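If I may wish for something, please sit down with the protein I am sending here and say whether tokens and residues agree:
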Amino acid sequence: MALRCLGSCRRHLRDLNRLLSFAGCDYRGSVCLYSAAAHHRSTGDECHVDEPADEPSHVMTIRMLELRASKLEEQVQDLTERYKRAVADSDTVRRRTQKFVEDAKVFGIQSFCRDLVEVADILERTAGDVESEFRGQETQRRRAEGAAAGVADLEGQEGGEGSPPLHRLSEGLALVQERLQAVFTKHGLEKMAPVGGRYDPYQHEIVCHVAAEEGGAQPGTIALVRQDGYKLHGRTIRHAHVGVAVEAQED
């Protein structure tokens, strides 16, 4: 639309320029006729030439055409500025739309990942509980066998065939965790490892403080993690709940 308006204004300007040229030539011809008539009258020539009666109308026509040309030039400039702004706005919208589409492709699974990491937390806690239960039962079994057959026989039975069902369950859960973390890595989902690093409010959330002497960490660093944090393609989708080491206050 802006291009059509610019083309139309330019055609009007060309037409006005031609009219101005024609009017100027006509006006100069009238002036020449008027000069010739004055010369003939001064020399007593019998040939009389009437004065141009439409000279004021020519002047008015030229002024009107010049005013019209000036207005058209202003319209051309205004339309040109509008066209430039429209092009700039459309380019900005195009870049924003392209960025939005790219983010949608990369972070479209963000909500799904937030829900999935909660399942990973439950799986990790369950695997830890099963492993602890297995170790407790294994310790009790070894103590009972040691009391009955002696410590030497207990050492000879270590590594024997036939793992208990609880141990097989623990191994299966560990394999599921390993496979789940591989799937996370494949899709850009990464678990944070903040222990020993500095506190970052964009990645961590402080839930407690730990004495630096007890945890063996430097003051201001992260000493423990209560809940793992995750990133999706470098963007934090869940903050890690951490405990920060602080200096013990002297009484």
Residues 25-49, 154-162 have pLDDT under 50 and may be disordered. The two ends are 80 Å apart (CA to CA).
